[in-house]
Amino acid sequence: MPAVDLNCDLGEGFDDASLLPLVTSANVACGAHAGDAATMVETCRAAVAAGVTIGAHPSYPDRANFGRVHVELDPAALRATLIEQVAALRRAADVAGAEVRYLKPHGALYNRIAQDAAEAAVVAAVAAELGLPLLGPSGSAIAAAALAHGVPFFAEAFADRAYLSDGALAPAERPVPS
């Protein structure tokens, strides 16, 4: 990855074509919160054409809420859904002549693993099993879990989101201070 990686969530049913020229990596929805097999292939092909790195963007299985609500899953169920989602994206990337290079959870799962060491450990174990680096917030439970599981970790920040005083992401509807 470049010194500064500008990543964007894609394959979620919005205008990917206008965003691809602006980013260096694409967090591609894996079908649980948005997207499907055809969308994943299309997004991966477009990313390849633009020279953009592809990452898996799995979530809780929650299409109704776009993956923005915590879903209580036992560790085995969380592991299974993450493995299934990344496998689906890997199949799409293979069709597009690309590979999945990292894992960045979406929405409520991303926020949960920033604070919840048990869920973070499941996600880090899956990343280790799949041989994928993780992206997430600095100083978080997922950063610690990645270290504990020997998974490369890349800390990130959101330019378009507000943060709380403890460093956690503010709710998406909260405006970014100007």
From TrEMBL:
Any matching Pfam family: LamB_YcsF
Top-level taxon: Bacteria
UniProt name for this protein: LamB/YcsF family protein
Lineage of the species this protein comes from: Bacteria, Bacillati, Actinomycetota, Actinomycetes, Micrococcales
Gene3D superfamilies: Glycoside hydrolase/deacetylase
InterPro entries per the UniProt record, alphabetical: Glyco_hydro/deAcase_b/a-brl, LamB/YcsF/PxpA-like
